[in-house]
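Possible regression after last week's pipeline update?

I re-ran a chain I had predicted before the update to compare outputs. Posting the input and the new output here so someone can diff against the archived version. Not blocking, just want to make sure nothing changed silently.
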Amino acid sequence: MHILVLLRMAPAVVEELEVAADGKSLDTEFLRMIVSESDDHALEEALILKERYGGKVTAVALDAPEVDDTLFAALAKGADRAVKIVEAPPDASTNAAAKVFSDALRQIPGLMPADLILAGTQAIDDLDGLIAPLVSHHLGLPFVGIVTGVTCDAAGAAVLTREFPSGVHGEFDCPLPAVVGVQAAEKPPRYVPVAKVRAVMKSQSIESAPSPPGAAAAALEVVQLAKPEVAAHAEMLEGSPEDVAGKLCGILGERGLL
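New output (post-update):
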């Protein structure tokens, strides 16, 4: 089984984000980039499948600050190959990034055919979660998203556990090859010691491949970014439930909402 995992870098939100001097972008001087959480779960699910059924795992990422650390960590965790796509537009939209991924998978030797292509459902800067479905569209492959478990049967198909609201789960039979959007792996992403990552840096390498020509930049222009303004418009209603309900109805009535 050959499994591809698409990795994206996203801003770490441990520190407060700051707007750059141009007013249109984030200040990158102190901005730390980390692998998207759901993509980390996609990698973990791929490694679980490798341990269960054998085969190989290839991690593929778009070039970004600190992406080398992420790819070496993927190798240290058990991935067999790491590929970095360079020269992609730095402000590529989700649609453009999906096209870069899809074209690169076709053109970089040894990536296709693949049995499964896994990607996270969302990223902190891509809440629509469209990378995986757009890649499936470009490659002409079936897609199932919000997946929390993957198994394979003897007939060469995958059984995908999909999460629904209210704690409901459903199982879908999906022919392979397929693209899967992983919401969460069956187990938490494994920890890899820094010493092991450093050892991998000395013994293995990351392949670099140019972005396929024709990749488009973001279709929308950012006119202005601004931090939320601090205001003091909250009014705390005190008293018994009946008093609070009466005051609330009065406020809503004054504003023409009742």
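Follow-up from reviewer: compared with the archived run. The chain has one domain: 2-210. Marking as no regression found.
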